[in-house]
Amino acid sequence: MDRIKVAVIGPGNIGSDLMYKILRSRYLKMELMAGIVESEGIKRARALGIRTTTEGIKPVLEDKSIKIVFDATGAKHHLQHAPLLKEAGKIAIDLTPAAVGPYVVPPVNLKDLYEAPNLNMVTCGGQATVPIVYAINKAAGARYAEIVAAIASKSAGPGTRQNIDEFTQTTAKALCAIGGAKKGKAIIILNPAEPPIIMTNTIYVEVENPDEKAIREAVFRMVKEVQSYVPGYRLRVPPILDGHKVTTIIEVEGAGDFLPKYAGNLDIITAAAVAVAEKLAARMLGKGVVA
Amino acid sequence: MSGKNGVRFVHIVDTTLRDGSHAVSHQFTREQIAAIAAGLDAAGIEYIEVSHGDGLAGSSYNYGWAALSDEEMLKAASEVIKKAKLTVLLLPGIGTQEDLKLAIDCGVKAVRVATHVTEADIGEQHIGLAKKMGLEAFGFLMMAHMVPPEKVVEQALLFESYGADCIYIGDSAGAMLPEDVKARVGAVVEKVKVPVGFHAHNNLTLATANCLAALEAGATFLDGACRGLGAGAGNAQTEALVGVLQKAGYETGVDFYKIMDVAEDIVEPIMHRPQVVRNAPLMQGYAGVYSSFLLHTYRAAEKFGLDPRDILVELGRRRMVGGQEDMIIDVAYQLAQKKGGN
User: Fold this and answer.
1) Three-state DSSP class for residue A30
2) A187 to B97: CB separation less than 8 angstroms, yes or no
3) Is B131 a domain residue?
4) Is B227 contained in some domain?
5) Residues B59-74: pLDDT tens digits?
6) Any CB–CB contact under 8 A between B64 and chain A?
7) ipTM attached to this prediction
8) In which domain, by residue range, is B211 found?
9) Do B318 and A193 touch (CB under 8 A)?
10) Are B235 and B265 in contact (CB under 8 A)?
11) B135, part of any domain
């Protein structure tokens, strides 16, 4: 079967997890893993028979057969990569906080962005909570959305730790821009408990119209949709209404591809990125949208 | 180190208007803030902390809505303070550098950047910004009872490396015995060059005793709140602490009579309930559960028909950390499901 060739830039934890997910894909072919130095991630890719480079983005740009590029480096690097990838006619899926392109949350707005040359994956908390806010907004009108994401300390790397404000600010923006809430707020908590906690997300929404049945149905439907690409996405506490306040709790267990299962926060962003690429690839292959 | 050789000075941070905010469900009014801040200032308190109980930008569904915005609270205090340093609390993950900049515009002179005791590195940027803007910056390690002294030292050294002017050890659950305090404070004092402070909670009725233990171990900064007003069982009682320290031969610069008057004449009349150690907060101290969970736990227990102590014990078993108020609903929901299923 034909598959669309893709590259991953940044062979760290996220890049390696992406690689394993891509290797399972019916629509994507893991063509190239690009780093800037010889590293564990490069070795890992090579051991799996994947072409690798330590010359950074250049070999990616030069390979005309590569159509989609995942950028798992850092915001600073993606700002340099984005125009180069665009010029080379490749679609960029950006897992950094650079946000050059529009935010994408697959079950919400991917269908509006098929032509965008650069898509940003928001944050892990955004991927976990925006779908629920969107569902509740459609069912009941969201005046305000607030989320609390709790993740295991071990699953927060130095990038997240040194830029923790970026998480709260970007996630809050996406709750409004993509989720549809009029106002948004995001909180992140790191918990060092052993064994590590799995990611939990509490979503509070102040609704216009507290129609419990409509809200619950919309949330149940959305949870199923997200489960189609993140199997470990589960409802912990179904929507509880208290006047106009709706409280929902979601947990995300990772698939354990490369990252440990508790790191659902990392899994959901790599899974969403691969889901985006698969839908784009399926369109390119003229096979319609992946179920 | 004993404090007996001559007079040793202890810096007092009064947190009636920050930790005390929990005890009034964050409903302090402008007039109340102005009256308390003016009283504390006139009594000679060196640092007056004013914020939502969960710090800048804490006003939320998760932590409770405040009656006033951060800006309104800080302005109400800064307008009356003549001598003291207006101080704020910032919990990275809740408040941001943007929130701190806004606070600085309101006249704030010091910030306490607080993280869970194992997560100091999420506060590096906030300490950095504070220093760049000319503020006094405290690195505050919450829930210090949860880890051994070596770990507290490791994290204190991180805060010091980011430029913190003082390291605080927070007994956020009121779970420490005096020897636990001495072990942690003493270990940090030995390794860092900057002053060390201690923030007590009174769940096991040891707040003042633990403050003395901290001083014996070399701390030079202590927190208090008038009438002990604070989350859970409340804090060390500022006016009692001042009296005790005076009697023990320490200098604080605080007028004992005046601070007693602030507590009795201004703070006491606005309290929602006496700050006594009821069963649930006692259980928090025993089980090591974050103090701010208390009132949220009472509400969840009522909504789901549960004993608040059962919720607190389960939160402790799950090793929940500061800020995870949302997990109270999770625990209450799961406990109620289990109960209903029997």
Assistant:
1) strand
2) no
3) yes
4) yes
5) 999 999 999 999 999 9
6) no
7) 0.94
8) 8-270
9) yes
10) no
11) yes
